[in-house]
Write a structure and sequence with these properties.
Blueprint (H helix, E strand, L loop, with lengths): L27 H5 L1 H16 L4 E3 L9 E6 L1 H5 L3 H6 L5 E23 L7 E16 L5 E7 H14 L14 E2 H8 L4 H7 L11
Antiparallel strand pairs: 1-2, 2-3, 3-4, 4-5, 4-6
This protein binds zinc ion.
Length: 209
Amino acid sequence: MLPSEGMILKIRQVGEQVLRQKSRPLSTDEILSRSIQELIESMRETMHDAPGVGLAAPQVGYPLQLLVIEDQLEFIQKLPPEQVAERERRPVPFHVVINPKLTLQGSDVVEFFEGCLSLAGFTAIVPRAKKVRVECLNERAESVIIDAGGWYARILQHEIDHLDGALYIDRMNSRSFCTQENYARYWKDRSIAEVIQQSSHPRVRLCDE
Ligand code: ZN
C-alpha cells in the first residue's frame, strides 16, 4: 500500500532490512501513476518535516529507485559562511531523481562530516567525489542529466547509495563516527585534517610481538 497524499512518512532507522536491499527501477507507467506521484509528494513533506536535504524511497520503506532532493537557502544561511564556502554548498531547488546512473567525474575526493535521517543522532567524516554526473528520469519520466559539484554532488552520492542498500557508515572514516551532540561539543569548529589527526589510529597490535 502506498501512502495517501500529504502524509508524513515514518523514516526507517538502520537495522531495517529495506535500508540494505537493492531498490528496483520504476517503469514510465509507474512513474506517472497516481500512487507514485503521491509517494513523491509525501516524501517531499517528510523531507521538509525532518528536516533534511535528501530522502530516498527505501528510507520510508519502499525499495524503489526514487529520491527527492532540496537544499534550501534557509538551511544554508544558518551556517557559518566559511563552512558554506568550504563545502561549496549552494541552494538546490526541489527535484526528483528516478532510476539514476551515477558517474564520478575526475579524481578529486573531499572529506566532510555527513549525517543521515536513517542514522538519527550520529555523524561521521565521509570521503566523496567532488564532482558527479547523474543520468536519470524526473517525475514526468523525462530524461535528465545532472552535472553536480560540491555539497550537491555529496547529496546525490549519499542518496543514490541508499538505492544500492549502502549507508554512509559503509564509507566513513570509522574513527570519526560520533553523536551529533559530541560533534557540536568537540569537533564542529575544527578542520577535517585536525579531526582525522586527533581521532587517528593508535598502533593496533594484533598479537604480542
Ligand atoms: Zn541517508
